[in-house]
Amino acid sequence: MTSQTVMDTLKILGSATIHEAQGQRGAMDSGIKPLDPTLRMAGRALTVDCSPGDNLLIHYAISKARPGDVLVVDAKGFTEGGPWGDILTLAATLAGIRGLIIDGMVRDTDTIIESQFPVFCRGLSIKGTHKHQSGRVNETIQCGGVAIRAGDIVVGDRDGVVVVAAEELDDVIRASQAREEKEEAFRRELEQGASTLDLLNLRGTLDRLGLK
């Protein structure tokens, strides 16, 4: 598959299926939410570690981005400033960046949503930030409670964000597709009268717990 086909496949599979298929690993915490839940996103991580209340390294990272990157920013969960807004959204779009995941806040919400640029963040803050502190780009960071390396794959939708290790991508896609096929078979059996208790082999657990 081409890179674009791979990313489209990941978006169709979705974050929840991918998370389950890779052994319930890689999910960012539920505080990282989509600004626009109708948008789906998948791409390789361009990682950014920046100081709370400062977005200098975000501007720097955009200058280093390749088309297809997703900016993944550890802004330390800082809630009293929005280091991302409409100008950075436009700059990122023009650079071919697929989206933003930030452990922090954003602002200029209406303009970002109108641009159809996927953003996943902790919330909104109208307060501005500074541009004078250093940080790190394309090194391993923490975002949403998950370790992410430059080049790992991130998938986001209304359910949340999941990280896939780059070297595991092919295996995770196969496992996710197998899970989808299994669940489709479950749907057919449920429509024919089957019980989830039997499909998921839960009878023994119920008996052990004394649930008749």
Feature tags:
Glucose Oxidase, domain 1; 2 domains; magnesium; metal-binding; RraA/RraA-like; RraA/RraA-like_sf; 212 residues; alpha/beta; metal ion binding; eight-stranded mixed beta sheet; 8 helices; single chain
Description of the structure:
The chain is of the alpha/beta class. The chain folds into two domains: 3-166, 3-Layer(bba) Sandwich (Glucose Oxidase, domain 1), CATH 3.50.30; 172-208, no CATH class. Helices cover 36% and strands 22% of the residues. The protein has helices at 3-13, 15-21, 56-64, 86-94, 109-115, 169-191, 196-199, 203-208, and strands spanning 33-34, 41-49, 69-74, 99-102, 105-106, 119-121, 123-124, 136-137, 141-143, 146-148, 153-157, 160-164. The strands form three sheets. Strands 1, 2, 3, 4, 6, 8, 11 and 12 form an eight-stranded mixed beta sheet that branches. A two-stranded parallel sheet has the order 5-7. The chain is elongated. Its cofactor is a divalent metal cation; Mg(2+). One of its GO terms (molecular function) is metal ion binding. Mg(2+) binds at residue 108.
